[in-house]
Amino acid sequence: MKSGKPNRTKTVVQALGIRVASGQLAPGALLPSETELEQEFSVSRTVIREAMKMLSAKGLVTVRQRHGTRVNPRQQWTWLDGELIDWLSDGRIAKAELLAFAEAREIIEPGAAALAATRASVEQRKAIVAAYGRMEVEQAHPGRAVAADKEFHLAILEATQNPVLQSLRHAIESILDAVFPHTVGAFADNLENHKQLASAIERGDAVAARTHMQVLLGETTQFLENCPID
Predict the structure, then answer these.
(1) Rounded CA separation 12/30 (Å)
(2) What pLDDT sits at residue 1?
(3) In this structure, is residue 193 part of a structural domain?
(4) pLDDT digits over 35-60, tens only?
(5) Distance (Å, rounded) from C-alpha 218 to C-alpha 44?
(6) Nearest one of 186, 180, 178 to 152, comparing CA atoms
(7) C-alpha span between 155 and 202 (Å, rounded)
(8) Residue 31's domain is classified under what CATH number?
């Protein structure tokens, strides 16, 4: 019979992670004691300590023996951790955080597009073009169009053949899930940029691929800057 410990640990990590990400537990705040957390979640001390290790690995907290566990300053958080991004999205994500994610995309994705243009297999190029095709077909249906848009960007990341960039898939997917609901209004105006990007990757033009990715991400960032989110 399998132990339920991993699931119990995950429950504690998620609950406390959301409290930290939402600001309910602010930077510098002291978390409840192990005894209090045991009682709140009806779990053993072993589960609580394992959960604290996982939160610490994400940079969210620092555990000090006999001094308790405190929330770390936000700049110490592991911002490319997919779970953390999901927790931020579960709450009221701040405009500054969305713009920080947009800036990160502007650093990562143009280079990824250039690599994809150079390294993608025939099948990967077809997948990128097909994802764009679904964006065009589904543009009147925001939910399906955004899903195709996410598929498009993740296919480019996969086509880099770079294991470090490929390992960012969960983080980039979570960033897209956080950003896209706020940029649906820019979808139609940015569609042509996606088309040009897909074409550049298909024909193996790394310079054009980088440029078109920079342009489309720049438009996304500009839309976010002008969007009344807060």
Answers:
(1) 16
(2) 39
(3) yes
(4) 999 999 999 999 999 999 999 999 99
(5) 49
(6) 180
(7) 12
(8) 1.10.10.10
According to the model, what pLDDT value does residue 181 have? Answer: 87
- In the block, residue with structure tokens 């679904």: 134
Q: Are 42 and 139 within one domain? A: no
Residue of 38, 42, 76 lying closest to 52 (CA atoms): 38
How distant is the alpha carbon of residue 218 from its chain centre?
18
The CATH number assigned to the domain holding 213 equals 1.20.120.530
Of 45, 76, 107, the residue at which a domain comes to its end is: 76
Sequence-separated (6 or more) residues with CB below 8 Å from residue 228: none
CB 74 within 8 A of CB 93: no
pLDDT digits (tens, 9 = 90+) for 83-114: 999 898 876 688 888 999 999 999 999 999 99
Q: Are 183 and 146 in contact (CB under 8 A)?
A: no
> Which amino acid does the sequence have at 121?
S
State whether residue 69 is helix, strand or coil. strand
179 within a domain of the structure (yes/no): yes
Q: Residue 174 phi/psi, 5° resolution?
A: -65, -40
User: Which contiguous run of DSSP H or E holds residue 205?
Assistant: none
Give the domain extent around 57: 8-76
Question: Tokens 């604290």 map to which residue?
Answer: 52
Read off the tokens for 68. 């308790």
Separate counts of helices (H) and strands (E) for the chain = 11, 2
Q: If DSSP codes are grouped into helix, strand and coil, which group holds residue 85?
A: helix
